[in-house]
Amino acid sequence: KQPDTSVLITSIKTLNIERTPTGAIVHATGIAARQGAFNVVLKPKNTEEKPEDGVLTYEFRVLYPEDPTTVGTEHTRRIEAARSLSNQTLAKVRTIRVVAEQNARESRRR
Q: Is the pTM of this model over 0.85?
């Protein structure tokens, strides 16, 4: 297995949780440090996606090309990530938190 060389995205702009019949979809929009970010993932920080004190935490991670790329405008560095969660995973979750390098966003269950 290859080592994980992904890094946290610079910042998170938005976090939305969309309910579905089978659970929910976590949608996050982040701003990368530079253009060309790829292999975008919301990686569970909690072991086996089990909440800690009711909080389910994900890291918004990306890879960058080895060669330098331009920074460009914020719009050109916007990255979307999503993750589907089952009702079973959500059963004991009160808060979903997504972490970036400079900030984090969270959404509480109503």
A: yes
